[in-house]
Amino acid sequence: MVKILLYILLKHIHLKDYKRHDLQTNLQNHPKGLHIKFSHMKYNRYVCIIKITLKQNLAMNKTISDAKREVTEYRILFPICLLAIVTFIPTFFNGFQMEWDDQWMVVNSQTVGYPSWYLLLSMFTIPSHGQIAPINQMMYTFIYICFGFNPLAYHCACLLLHVINIILLYYGLHMILSDCITLPSGRIKWILFITTTLFAVHPLQVESVAWISASKILLSTTFYFAGIILLIKYLRKRSMLCYTGALLMQTMAYLSKEQAVVFPLIATLIYLWYKQSPKDKKFWIQLFPFYLLGLVSVIHEVFYVSGYNHIVQGETYVWWQRLVFCVYSVFTYLFKWLAPVNLNWMYLFPVGLNEKLQWWLILYPVLSVFLVYSFWDWIKKPIVLSSLAFFFIHLLLVIHIIVLPRAAVIADRYMYISIISLNFILAYYVSGIKEIVKNKKISYGIISLIIAILVALSFSRTMDWKDSDTLRSATNTEISSSQESN
Question: What is the average per-residue pLDDT within 5-9?
Answer without folding.
Answer: 42
